[in-house]
Amino acid sequence: MNQKNPYFNNYNFEKIADTLIRLGVLFLLISWCYAILKPFVLILIWAAVIAIAFSPVYESIVKLFRGKKIVATVFFTIVLLSILIIPSVLVSQSLYEEVNNFSHTYQSGEHLIPPPGESTKNWPTITKPILEIWKSASEDISNVVFKYSDQLKVVGEWLLLALAGVGKGILQFIASIIIAMGLLLYSKSLTSVSKNIFIKLIGSNGEHYALITVITIRNVVKGFLGVALIQSLMVGAGFFMAGVPFAGIFTIICLILAIIQIGIGPIAIPVVIYMYSVTDTTTATLLAIWIGITMISDNVLKPIFLGRGNPPAPMLVIFLGAIGGFIYNGFIGLFLGAVILTLGYKFFLSWIEMIEDEKIEE
Fold it and tell me: How far apart are CA 126 and CA 114, in angstroms?
């Protein structure tokens, strides 16, 4: 006589069907919410990073305004937006003026590129190919463009895409700063909510991972992104004051190189060499001194922002995070990628340490 399996009676079947329907509706709702927020995901994540990184500064400003959080928030928003917008306007204005000058010089038949100066005669023999290309370009740039058309096309396309990405990234930064200030305004409730989320997702170690998140974000933003931004502002100020052509573009490239931990040297040093050959010695020497100070400032600023302890992650992690973020998410990904990959690296190390501790206890 066949007996019915108790696990497949009507009650269990209805319970399973009910659970599947609920999960399906929940999945549909989450997918729908994600589709709606997808254009703003990067902005929201970066806003959260800014809020976490600048919360100690924000708390100090609130104390300065005697607890008036709304006034302090408005003031802090204006300060951050000014730091972002003013250099962006200067860079855009510089680029616009240089393009106009380039067009005017081309139409008037003058040299688009100044010829090598007398000082270049004393340069080492190894620089001879560079000087020949430079001299040829100063005499007739069309020959050089035709000869290296394929390479210049690749560089030009990359540069246009990068500049477009920078423009989009600046708008994303502005939106992120405004949202971040809103988050800081309600920071006390958000702190408890974030801890509860980590505890719900991870369990008893949730608060530990929440603390790791806060510390890692602050260290990366201050010790790497902050230093890179300061160095790029310093080198940009030097370029503009010395009258370097296309100073805005060179400043943006220096910022990118500083974030990926290569440093400003690959751009700043050739610029200084170029200025020695086309401008007076005093201007070039002052620029060289300023560039030297900017380059060694890395060794002073990082210990100040990071302390004397170990860095939050190896340079390779920062490099891969910044490059991967830039390729995947554009200009804002240059900043966000370094933070997210470093955070994942710290989570992985913490997880390994917990496993080892559990084995020791057993």
Answer: 21
What is the DSSP secondary structure assignment for residue 119, as one 8-state letter? G
Residues with Cβ within 8 Å of residue 252, at least 6 apart in sequence: 91, 162, 163, 166, 232
> What does 111-175 look like in DSSP terms, one character per residue?
-SSPPP-GGGGGS-GGGHHHHHHHHHHHH-HHHHHHHTHHHHHHHHHHHHHHHHHHHHHHHHHHH
Can you give 126-143 as a three-state secondary structure string? HHHHHHHHHHHHHHCHHH
* Cα–Cα distance for residue pair 60/75, rounded to 1 Å: 12
Cβ burial of 125 (10 Å; 0-12, 13-18, 19+) is exposed
From residue 60, alpha-carbon distances to 55, 109, 194, 306, 323 in Å are 9, 58, 22, 19, 34
> For tokens 């958000």, what's the residue?
190
Q: State the Cα–Cα distance between residues 179 and 177, nearest whole angstrom.
A: 5
What is the pTM for the complete model shown?
0.72
R_g of the chain, CA atoms, integer Å = 27
Tell me the backbone φ, ψ of residue 203, rounded to 5 degrees.
Answer: 105, -145
Rounded CA separation 67/13 (Å) = 58
What is the distance between the alpha carbons of residues 335 and 180, in angstroms, rounded to a whole number?
Answer: 15
List the one residue out of 233, 4, 270, 275 whose CA is nearest residue 116. Answer: 275
Residue for token digits 């170029």?
274
User: What are 99-130's pLDDT values in tens digits?
Assistant: 677 666 656 655 556 666 666 666 666 766 77
Q: What is the mean pLDDT of residues 148-169?
A: 69
